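The records we work with from here on pair a chain with its fold. Each token is a code from a learned vocabulary of local backbone shapes. A record is reproduced here so that you can trace the correspondence yourselves:

_____
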Amino acid sequence: MTTFIQPLLQVVDPQLPPPSGVVYFVATVIKMLVVFTIYMVGVALLTLAERKISAWIHDRIGPNRVGPGGLLQPAADGLKNIMKEETYPGAANLPLFVLAPAIAFVPALLTWCVIPFASPLPTPWGLIDMVVAPLPVGYLFILAISSLGVYGIVLAGWSSNNKYALLGGLRSSAQMISYEIAMGMATIPVLLLAGNVALNDIVLQQAHGLWNVLGLTVAFLIFLVAAFAETNRLPFDLPEAESELIAGYHSEYSAMKFSMFFIAEYANMVTASALMVTLFFGGWDIPGQWDVAPWSAWKTLATGGFFLFKVMFFLFFYMWIRWTLPRFRYDQLMALGWKFMLPLSLSYIVIMASAILGLDAAGVARGSWMFGLSLLALNVVLVGILLFLIDRGRLISPAYSRLDKRNVDKLRAVAARSSLMAEGRN
């Protein structure tokens, strides 16, 4: 065992050849088993984390009966759902009704396979990339596959033959399509800076300069808001609005099929968090000399741990927002997506493309500190304009009036005169 592990812990020549076909196949199978096992166990534990964090925010204890500190509560919930009786609506379209939960879950699982989660691992058989499928079109693959998840939700609502479920499915499809456009547009400046759609190249571009959250701050804010909407999380959980639609598109589901929608939601949260980390927070990069060859197993372990830490921060942020903010009205949700997010993302593409072209024409090398600081200064100005001059707390606020102050004052004056006239008659 020692003779096998020892070569992995040594610093290895950066000019290692790529692995052979057999080694590549075996490494891919091992990565699939390890990554997706951790992924599924992590998704199960996120349900416990959600309940613990909500209890912490509410000043409660949370689950604490099953296992030490409630650690086995997800296993108990899973066992309960497996043992429960499956119910089927009498007028449901059974094939689509059964298929919909899997269609909602599988795209979230597939998108993870192109996200790099650590620096390359040197082995005696070649350099192994720490990504399940290192596709050269990784980001385009994510856009294509993640957009399929809405079919599962729409089919769940339609096949249930229930009005509340149908309304939830329609809401979800409109919401996800609306914010998917803004999410895609927000990442175009990232691709302009990286010059590539391969996620590994995007990570290395940030590692050799500033993280994109500093140089493309507005794009990150757009992507963050769109990620909340795409995962149907508060304040964008209108498809599951309990006060209006009972439980939305999964009203007629029970037992394990019901759980599949929640598993899909948490899986989408993990994927969206990993994508935010990869595109805007340097991915697995640790500031310093961790992003350059020669590679070693210590670098792989350290960068993998740092990537996991970043993803867990965004997962905590998801849960923190859920238990802090109220949900939007549906007209506010759609207005934010079409009247604000889309024009903002299009304008930002034009501004950043012009800025990058201007810096290139001025002879400022990409990846240099001057290039990064110039983009940082521009984004500080743009964020200031966005938050303090354009918004003024009315457009993004979840409780604003359609009327301006003058019209509100006129209505109040009319109401006051009507009240005085009514008192005079009495």
In short: Residues 1-14 have pLDDT under 50 and may be disordered. Strands lie at 121-123, 126-128. The CA atoms of residues 147 and 180 lie 8 Å apart. Residues 88-117+132-425 form one domain.
